[in-house]
Structure formats: structure tokens, C-alpha cells
Amino acid sequence: xxxxxxxxxxxxxxxxxxxxxxxxxxxxxxxxxxxxxxxxxxxxxxxxxxxxxxxxxxxxxxxxxxxxxxxxxxxxxxxxxxxxxxxxxxxxxxxxxxxxxxxxxxxxxxxxxxxxxxxxxxxxxxxxxxxxxxxxxxxxxxxxxxxxxxxxxxxxxxxxxxxxxxxxxxxxxxxxxxxxxxxxxxxxxxxxxxxxxxxxxxxxxxxxxxxxxxxxxxxxxxxxxxxxxxxxxxxxxxxxxxxxxxxxxxxxxxxxxxxxxxxxxxxxxxxxxxx
Length: 275
Known about the structure:
There is one protein chain. By secondary structure, the chain is α+β, with helices and mostly antiparallel strands. The protein folds into 2 domains: 1-8 and 31-71 and 93-123, no CATH class; 126-264, Sandwich (Immunoglobulin-like), CATH 2.60.40. The protein has 7 helices and 10 strands. It has helices at residues 2-13, 34-72, 90-110, 112-119, 126-131, 249-264, 270-274; strands spanning 135-140, 143-148, 169-172, 174-178, 183-189, 194-198, 203-207, 213-217, 224-229, 242-247. The strands form 2 sheets. It has a 5-stranded mixed sheet. Strands 4-10-9-6-7 form a 5-stranded mixed sheet. The longest helix is centred in the first third of the chain and has 39 residues, at 34-72. It starts with a helix and ends with a helix. The model has no long low-confidence stretch (mean pLDDT 88).
């Protein structure tokens, strides 16, 4: 009985030691996206169900073991209770088959709305569907290559096309998107299977070669988040730790304009031309 008790105590203390959900910018394990909060709710619901089941089965196991030990400890000259043998109970087997099936069915139905909102493109937020993807993230051994649309003469982002355009802008391991609003990216893989993972936002999606997968999320706070590869993709897998920088939309637009100027700079300044 020591191990189940130790497991419960350790899990109880784990959040205080940051052995829990990834700590966000707030320093707590709270999700930093609205969808992530709903995913956490699902996790806690499943945790409660499994904890009650775990504790209940351990209590039952402990009762059986201690009862059997007490019966076997009777003195040789005493008349102890005789052990009995049973071939089983059909009613009991039906109960312990139906109850877990009902619990699993409840979990499957309860999570369908959250799953659809995250995975089914028709259920994406209307703003995401209207604006389309703001960036394309391509995983490759061993980095994240990010493609943005260029900006027009007025500084407004152009539409991101499926195929690269001469006006597109690029960064490596530095994804920057607006905060406090739903945004979408296209996720690709150039070689092997990778996994796009934003732990603080609870976003995780495999990047599969040959597929273009739409992924949406919303960072509720303007700050820097971890962006990782959660799939062992080769010897340089450890190199794929990068970042997502979420900023207000006006700052993001200014950053795009600066990126365009930097990318199109040919190394010859106006001052040298004047001379």
C-alpha cells in the first residue's frame, strides 16, 4: 500500500514543484490560450476519473490482501475460516465491463466539441477562416523555416499563397504572430515527420511529409513562448527548440515592414550612392 499512497502524495505536491503543466509567462501552469484552457479542463476531468478508479482499486486490493493475510495467520490449533474458491460471477463481469465502457463513451462524447474546434477546419473561428493563414511553418532537419507574406506599399500584409512568391518574407526558428486574436498557420514537413508543439498554448500537431495542415491558436498575452519539435526526428532533434513571439497586431505589422526592408537590403546604402 506504500506505492499508491506515495503516488497520490507525489501528484498532490507536483504542481508546487513545477512538475505539472509547462509554466507560462505568468509563472503558473495555466494555459496561455482559450483553447488550451478547455484542453486543461478535459485533462483534469480525466485525471479525476483515473484517480478515483486508482484509489478505489488499491483499496479493494489492500482489503483482499490484508483479509487473506489475517486468515493465514491463525494458530495451527485454532479453527480458522476456510478459504473458498469461486469460478467467477457473470453479473460482476458484466458490471466491470459496462462501467468502464460507459466512462470511455462519456469522455469520447464530452471532448468532441473541443476536438472539432481544434482539428476540423470548418469549426475554426470565423476570423481565422476570413483572414486565412498568416504564416507557413515548414519543419526540416533540424530547424523551423517560416514563410510570411510580404507587405504592400501601405504596409498591409499581402495574402499568403500556397506556393512561394517573390514578395514572401522568411525567418528561421522565429515565428511572430499577433496576440489576443485567433491566428492560423500552414504546417508542412520537408523531410521526415516532425511535431509542432507550443506547450504553454497546449498546441501540438504532427507535421507530415506531403501534407499541408492548417493549425490555429490564440496567444492571450504578448510575450515569448517556447516552440518545440515533439517528435524524435534524427540526431539533431535537440536543435529544434525555437520561439513564438506574440505581439499586438500593430507591432506585428511594423515588424513585417522592418523584415521586408532587411530582407531586400542589397548592402549598398543611400549615403554611399550620394558620395
